[in-house]
Fold each of these.
Amino acid sequence: MYDMLQTAASAVSSFVWGEFLLIPLLSAVGVYLTLGLRCTPWLKLRASFRLLLGKSGDANGEISPRHALMTALSATVGTGNIAGVATAIYLGGPGAIFWMWIIALFGMATKYAEAVLAIKFREVDKRGQFVGGPMYYIKNGLGVRWRWMGVAFALFGTIAAFGIGNMVQSNSVADALATTFEVEKMHTGIAMAVLVGVVILGGIRRIADVVSKLVPAMAIAYVFCTLCILANYHASIPAALQMIFTSAFNGSAATGGFLGASIWMAIRFGVARGIFSNESGLGSAAIAHGAAKTNSPVEQGLIAMLGTFIDT
């Protein structure tokens, strides 16, 4: 049974992340939005940080714009940056990192658009709380004829939350603790389930309160550890950068193969892991941004795109 599920999952993954579906579609959307917005995400980067650091005014919503960004970042900064990047390098070679950077540059426009739509087409639920996200802007923006697509997103988004949202992360943490400190994986899983349950049962406001404290500390620790590693291996940095750029175009993939195939592997796994890392185009971040206290979809879009910039 396990082998059947693994075979089926591999087949679906190969099709979805193949050369004809998600990678070209998400890449094309990012390029289209970047050009259509006249490179606004790149040109307004400083303005985005000013909005993030500024005080949120009196507006409709559940959480502050800053808390909305931290909530979205809590799902991106972490495993995707470590295990995801390592997997991309192993499967696609060092050049995969270059393509991760490229997809992130264009992914900023995608994340901007997601947040703009989330605010513009959000609604108030039966409890009087503001809710938004792809399922709402599909229904309210495209009309009743496309409501089935919103339902499909909600369904598959729920399923995906158990996969890329929970299983990968919890497995990585449990494996690290088991390997380093010999902690039983079951004990780690139970502890994480209890802690996460205490947070999420409090709703979006408790989630935002917790992650607004955890995410900055986590990001600072992550950057600090990274800088320590870079300082320790500072002599190798120029050669590493050269390897990243040359491998992106000459096809020296870690798994070998002829020139064209190796370049495609670098692009494929770089783009795929980049999207897994920053979630641009997945729609999950828009759910958090849809609850932000703001009356300006554009301002929230500018704040939201920082998630892709900071993460990747």
Amino acid sequence: GNEPEDPNLLAIIGDQDRGHNLLLELNDPRLVSPLRQHLLHLHSAVHGPWERLRPSYNRVIRTEDTAIYLFPRLRRNIIAKKLLTVPSGSVLRLAVSHLNDRKIGATLRAVAARGVRIEILAHDTERRVPQWVEEQLLESLTFRRYRHPQGLPMHNKFILIHTPQQREVLLGSMNLSVRSLYVNHELLLVSSNPLLVEAMERRWHDMQNLLDESMTS
């Protein structure tokens, strides 16, 4: 509805209407129903820092192979704790549009030091992923900036975990940024569902291939 587009604004934030995103469908009523209730609550509630104390925000929406965490919540270090349990010999692949939390950076370096191979595809702008993040992480893991050939912003936010025992994916609205981890209303989904994991693996390889093609063209 923002026609005509403001070229100055697009130069700063990118074309959000054509952003390089991925939508996944969840159709299990055990997940959909409580998520719908949460959405309605977000639109009707009075918001403030006290929300992380509410039991409804600290619950976990679960099925046999999937868990959804709502934010803000009291225990906010779910991603860091999950990463720190990944055993040596595993592979972590992270597609991140925002990364500026120093604690997450320290966690990734600690995990890499234990013998976990880590690969990151990060948004190309330093506004979302500052240069100091790249400099710190390059010492410990593979870090590449994702530049779409058409300059479209990348909003992917997922982590693929491959251990000798299983495959998992973490995804949702949650960024690895200070505001997202500690302030914003966010969703984090953790799943070992094979269809979901395979969908995100395809996405990862598509992004890698597109990046490789753009570098060789």
